[in-house]
Amino acid sequence: LADHVEFRDAIATAIPSIIQLLKDDNWPARSAAATALSNLTDHVEFHDAIVTTIPSIVQLLEQVCWQARLAAATALSKLAGHVELHDAIVAAIPSIIQLLKDDDWPLRSAAATAVSKLADHVELHDAIVATIPSIIQLLKDDDWRAQSAAATVLSKLADHVEFRDAIAPAIPSIQLLINKADDWRARLSAVTAVSKLADHVEFRDAIAPAIPFIIQLLVNKTDDWQALSAAASALGKLAKHAEFHDTISTVIPSMIPLLATNAFWRGQAAAATAFGEFSQIFYK
């Protein structure tokens, strides 16, 4: 209805009631209210009323019900699209970072998306930079979920040059996940993060020591086909950067046995993918 200008005066009078629903005992009501308020921000005439609701939406991030937390994180990422709401949203950023270690994957995904969307707004960069050490610390968490989410978020934040100095200390911990993580999903996220971070020249010297670990994912014949696929894809991407050519060239012989007819078939497929990439780069 708010898309129609003739209804907006009437809708404005309903906003206080929607705000009250943020404190309702039922999570569907709280979630619906957060979603409705974020949608109403598409219309500038509602902004003054909505800015007062942001502290209540932030409080939803602390709710026991994951659906309410999900709605709040999603709403805040959308609210960040409006510069006049940024000052109020800054207070929510540390709470959103904490959601990266949540047990519920939809919430971790929403938090990661929210952080990357918030980072698109330069006015929020100072607040986000302050949280990067906390994100890096999650790489050392005992839970693969936190490790994976942190690696993914850091690789996305690195798209912004302002964050790269703060992210650089994370690279050794991301490399350690490739080599030592107990769960394949953490290794998968770490491998993907390294290949993405390599797009930025200032990280490449630090990333080079990770290449042998990525090769080992193939050589060790892991049953985790996603990790194998990610390793092959990462090597293909890394090989596009001249700085890694010498390192990759030295490990190619150790990959050749993966192509043998009696080799583990998933390793064969991953190695074949990698060699396909290498042939276009090394043998032009």
UniProtKB/TrEMBL annotation:
<dbReference type="Pfam" id="PF13646">
    <property type="entry name" value="HEAT_2"/>
</dbReference>
<dbReference type="InterPro" id="IPR021133">
    <property type="entry name" value="HEAT_type_2"/>
</dbReference>
<dbReference type="InterPro" id="IPR016024">
    <property type="entry name" value="ARM-type_fold"/>
</dbReference>
<feature type="repeat" description="ARM">
    <location>
        <begin position="209"/>
        <end position="243"/>
    </location>
</feature>
<keyword id="KW-0472">Membrane</keyword>
<feature type="repeat" description="ARM">
    <location>
        <begin position="13"/>
        <end position="41"/>
    </location>
</feature>
<dbReference type="InterPro" id="IPR011989">
    <property type="entry name" value="ARM-like"/>
</dbReference>
<dbReference type="GO" id="GO:0005774">
    <property type="term" value="C:vacuolar membrane"/>
</dbReference>
<dbReference type="GO" id="GO:0071562">
    <property type="term" value="P:nucleus-vacuole junction assembly"/>
</dbReference>
<feature type="repeat" description="HEAT">
    <location>
        <begin position="92"/>
        <end position="127"/>
    </location>
</feature>
<keyword id="KW-0449">Lipoprotein</keyword>
<dbReference type="GO" id="GO:0043495">
    <property type="term" value="F:protein-membrane adaptor activity"/>
</dbReference>
<feature type="repeat" description="HEAT">
    <location>
        <begin position="131"/>
        <end position="168"/>
    </location>
</feature>
<keyword id="KW-0677">Repeat</keyword>
<dbReference type="InterPro" id="IPR000225">
    <property type="entry name" value="Armadillo"/>
</dbReference>
<dbReference type="InterPro" id="IPR000357">
    <property type="entry name" value="HEAT"/>
</dbReference>
<protein>
    <recommendedName>
        <fullName>Vacuolar protein 8</fullName>
    </recommendedName>
</protein>
<comment type="similarity">
    <text>Belongs to the beta-catenin family.</text>
</comment>
<dbReference type="InterPro" id="IPR045156">
    <property type="entry name" value="Vac8"/>
</dbReference>
<feature type="repeat" description="HEAT">
    <location>
        <begin position="14"/>
        <end position="49"/>
    </location>
</feature>
<keyword id="KW-0926">Vacuole</keyword>
<dbReference type="Pfam" id="PF02985">
    <property type="entry name" value="HEAT"/>
</dbReference>
